[in-house]
Amino acid sequence: MRLLVINWQDWKHPLAGGAEVHLREIFTRMVRRGVEVHVLSCGFRGGKDYEVIEGVHVHRVGRRETFNFFVPFKVREMEASLSFDLLIEDLNKLPFYTRFYSRTPKKMAILHHLFGRTIYEETNPLAATYVYLQEMAIPRIYRDWPFVVVSESTKGELVRSGVPEENVRVVHNGIDVKFYHPMPKFPEPTVLYLNRFRRYKRPDLAVEIFAIIKKNLPEVRFLMVGKGPALEGVKRLARRRGVDVEFLGYVPDGEKAEILARSWVLLNTSSKEGWGLVNMEAFASGTPVVGFRVHGMRDSVKEGYTGFLVDYGDVRGAASRIMDILTDEGLRIRLSHNARKFAEKFTWERAEEEMWKIVKATV
After folding, report:
1. Minimal CA–CA distance to 307: which of 291, 285, 328, 319?
2. How does pLDDT run across 277-307, given as a tens digit for each residue?
C-alpha cells in the first residue's frame, strides 16, 4: 500500500508541534508494516526538497506562508509518477481541497481541532478572517470524507458543523510512557508552563496566574519552556508584574522530560486544544495539570483525578487550584499517581493500530 499524507509541516520543521508528533508516531509505525508513506509538507531554511526520514519519504515545497498554493501542482506532479492507494489530508490550519484536483480515488482527513474564533486571538483580523472562512468550508467540502479526530470535543465540533457523525472516528493520541516517566520532584515548589509562545496559547495569563501565586507563596519557582512570537511580550509582562520567571526557551527532549517529571504541577493556559499532548506528557511524568475548561483540555484532563480545570480566563481560580496542589502533599501525591495510571492507557502503538484499521477499511 502507498499513502500520500499532506501535512503543513513535517517533524523536522523548526515550528513543529503536536500535529507533527502525531504525524511521526503514526506513520513511521505504518512504514514498519511495509506501507510506503509519502509526506508532502512545506519547506524551511536548511530543509531538503526531498529526503527519507525514518523510512518516510518527505517532499517539501514552498514555505509555511505559501505552502497551500503549491500543493495542487505538487500533488499532480507526484501522482503522475506514483500511484497512491490513499490520500490523507491533515486539516491543520487550512484545507487543501484535493478533491478538486487529485487523481487518487480514495481520500480521508485527519483533524486535531478547528481554530474557530480563537484564530482572532492569534493573528491580525484580515489573516484571521481568511483562516476562519476556510475552516467554515470544511463541513461543506469534506462532509462525505472519512474523518479521524483526536478527541470527542473535535468530533462534536465537526458534527455540529454538518459532518455526518458516522463519518467521524476518534483515535486518541498516544504517549511514550517509557520516555516520559516519574522522577524525584524539585525540592522547591515548581510550576511549569511548557508550550509554544503563541497568543492563543495565552502565556500572558500564565504570568498573571504566577503573580497571584507569588503573593501567597513567595517560595514558589516558575518555569516557562518554549519559544514563539509571543515570547518577548511575555517577558516584558513578567517584568512589569514583578514575577521572577525562569525562561528556558527551547530545550532538548531529554531535558524537557526531566523538567516535566520534576515539576510539581503543569499549567496549560491554552484557549483551545485538539487533545492536549503536553498534558499527556505531564501525566506520564507523574505531574498533574491545571488549565481552562475548553475544547481538548476537558478531554485529556480528568477533573479532580489528574488535575483541575476552571472556566476560561479565571486566573484566580487557576491560581487557587495550583496552590491547593502545592500545599497539600496528600492531594499532590494522589493526583500524581492517578496521572501516571491514566497515561499508561494511551500508547502510540494502540493509536497506530486503530488508525491502520481505518486506513485499510477506507482503501
Report:
1. 291
2. 899 999 999 999 999 999 889 999 999 999 9
Residues in the chain: 363
Alpha-carbon gap, residue 98 to 209, rounded angstroms: 44
pLDDT in tens, 117-140: 767 766 778 877 887 888 888 888
Domains of the chain plus CATH, in order, are 2-174+347-362 (3.40.50.2000), 190-343 (3.40.50.2000)
CA–CA separation, 227 and 263 (whole Å): 19
What is the reported pTM? 0.85
C-alpha span between 287 and 266 (Å, rounded):
7
Measured from the Cβ of residue 192, the count of other Cβ atoms closer than 10 Å reads 27
Q: What is the pLDDT of residues 108-118, one digit of tens each?
A: 999 988 776 76
CA distance 246 to 256: 14
SS3 content of the chain, % helix, strand, coil (to 5): 45, 20, 35
Compute the distance between CA of residue 322 and CA of residue 63 in angstroms, rounded to an integer: 40
Instruction: Describe the strand order of the beta sheet including 50-53 as a list of residue ranges.
Output: 50-53, 56-61, 36-42, 2-6, 86-90, 107-111, 147-149, 168-170
Q: What is the pLDDT of residues 339-362, one digit of tens each?
A: 999 999 999 999 999 999 999 999
- Contacts with 43 (C-beta within 8 Å, 6 or more apart), sequence order: 49, 60, 61, 62, 63
CB count, 10 Å around CB of 209? 27
